[in-house]
Amino acid sequence: MPLTALEQQLNFLREIDRLKTVTRQSPLLDQSRKENSAEHSWHLAMYALLLNEYACAAVNTNRVMQMLLLHDIVEIDVGDFPIHAGLSGELQAKQEAEAAVRLFGLLPPQQGNELLALWQEFERAESEDAKFAKALDRFQPLLINVFTGGGTWAENNVSLEQVVSRYGPVIKRGAPQLWAVCEQWVVRHFAGQTTKS
Amino acid sequence: MPLTALEQQLNFLREIDRLKTVTRQSPLLDQSRKENSAEHSWHLAMYALLLNEYACAAVNTNRVMQMLLLHDIVEIDVGDFPIHAGLSGELQAKQEAEAAVRLFGLLPPQQGNELLALWQEFERAESEDAKFAKALDRFQPLLINVFTGGGTWAENNVSLEQVVSRYGPVIKRGAPQLWAVCEQWVVRHFAGQTTKS
């Protein structure tokens, strides 16, 4: 007997519970442990809700929030690709695209196709909504690193120049005012000063 | 010097990082650990996005998602009040209301007031959006308990009648079709049969 729409939706919702077990490189701000990708996605949706006025252009905040809620679910299949690990972008993109097809394929076709299209739009980073979502996805771990005395930068011996080149273009493109703040934090951080507020 | 709007917003976003350290009673579906309130909120927003067709009335899905993303942040100050602990509802409501004022008060006034109003609307559970959000907030832990062989029910010796009375009215009111599924699960669960799909 084919599954009902509700059964397909509940299967998907149960499957994505696994995102709570995908560990990221970034710590929590209290440094008690590493962040997982589900709580990271929650936090990013809150960033989008609160910081939409700093987007590079008029954005649809609800679409941005939806993108950020689902942008990482491919990690259920392929894990988190750390920004400082120097892995192949092409291989990562291929594996993630396959994971998206499998995961959204659990849903009723129309709903699954809509969410797959939203995920692909985020990945392409061309629309205004996607550019802002990408900027926040880069801004949040930068903020964590600055407010935890280095975080993943200290662990990976990342230099000021590498921070500027790995985070700058994406944040600047989607949220230039946020990048202006980041520049101040980063310069202060690499000068050895702690950022408290 | 007064804080800029962006400084207030970033202070709030840093403060709510603490929701990741609030532990709930429910386990993850793989039972590796208890769920925290931040990842729970992420999951509920995904429930709202996917299951809006089962709402009791026409709802604004994006408002429901926003409510669910922020509904638990008061737990940063007061912790999670377990449904089966039999605590005073009045004391809980008072403490949570104070926490909401403090937390949303970190934001620029207009933004903070808007989010506080949304949180209060959720708590009142009178609007269609809030009724559906409340139903999902009750549905998700029920699903977890069913699919983990009992979860918090087993730990607290909760009976079939108690499940029906503690979950039923809220789920039925906001999402009657989801309650119909729950009834089947619950009856099967208390008859000692495992639910696999």
UniProtKB/TrEMBL annotation, chains A, B:
Keywords: Hydrolase, Metal-binding. The keyword Amino-acid biosynthesis does not apply. Pfam families: HD_3. Residues 16-179 form the HD domain. It comes from the Bacteria. The keyword Metal-binding applies. InterPro entries: HD_domain, YfbR/HDDC2. This is HD domain-containing protein. It comes from Vogesella oryzagri. The lineage of its organism: Bacteria, Pseudomonadati, Pseudomonadota, Betaproteobacteria, Neisseriales.
